[in-house]
Amino acid sequence: MPMPSSRKFFQARPQSNLLRRSVVLTLCFVIGIAGLLSFAVVVSRGRIGGGDKCNYSKPLSVSVVWDKSGGSTGGLVSDGDRKRHKVMGFVGIQTGFGSVGRRQSLRKTWMPSDHQGLQRLEEATGLAFRFIIGKTDDASKMAELRKEAAEYDDFLMLDIMEEYSKLPYKTLAFFKAAFALYDSEFYVKADDDIYLRPDRLSLLLAKERPHSQTYLGCMKKGPVFTDPKLKWYEPLGYMLGSEYFLHAYGSNLCSLCRCCCKLGCSKKQQFPDVQQ
């Protein structure tokens, strides 16, 4: 009897797979070479970083003084020919000459520490952030401030003496300068010892509201303390009576909208010279 022949299996050589793989590798190589050439061309033309340099070349820090003769800007004169910058909110962080450590803490946490970072944060949130500070007769402190401003470029410097007793005047000067320099829906006053979430503040300010004038912050009224031994002693208590009128209170507030700032920046209410 003839022996049954065993079945033999033959596996064809994967020529088609090898050819396909070669084609793919060749295409990848060509694309890679083209990408490298494009990169070289862009670098040679100076396009990488060129756009950022153009966008971020203008300094952010600014000094403002008041022209006693008044004028169309409500007496404000800046250190350059500036147009009002459009933002949703301007956040002025009140600071002083003895608060270098606080400013550094903010720059290491929620506030960008460089020019480009501030610009990116503004583009992402619609909020502009600056440290608000006055001036002093101490030449060494002014020199240190100018050095810090040149390094971080995040100051708005006011033409007012930086003194604790003149904080109300500094607040008025801040709102006047902020309104003159920024076309903003909100003007936010904050202290330099807070931790702020810019993204959350942006969402809060972006909400639609039935009224065009909005105030976000604390309101206070209560007895006037006339005893000099008490912490909250009010030296002008005789002018206020026995109780404070309802007023904005606290260091952190989102102030109103345009109308209030226009009232504060009118020609008839020039920034006063404060004498002691």
Automatic annotation (TrEMBL):
Pfam families: Galactosyl_T (PF01762)
Keyword Nucleus: no
Membrane topology recorded in Swiss-Prot or TrEMBL: Single-pass type II membrane protein
Keyword terms: Glycosyltransferase, Golgi apparatus, Manganese, Membrane, Signal-anchor, Transferase, Transmembrane, Transmembrane helix
Localization annotation: Golgi apparatus membrane
Pathway: Protein modification; protein glycosylation
Cofactor(s) required for function per UniProt: Mn(2+)
One term under GO cellular component: Golgi membrane
UniProt key word DNA repair: no
One GO molecular-function entry: galactosyltransferase activity
E.C. code: 2.4.1.-
Family: Belongs to the glycosyltransferase 31 family.
PANTHER family: BETA-1,3-GALACTOSYLTRANSFERASE 13-RELATED, BETA-1,3-N-ACETYLGLUCOSAMINYLTRANSFERASE
Protein name as annotated: Hexosyltransferase
Organism of provenance: Lactuca saligna
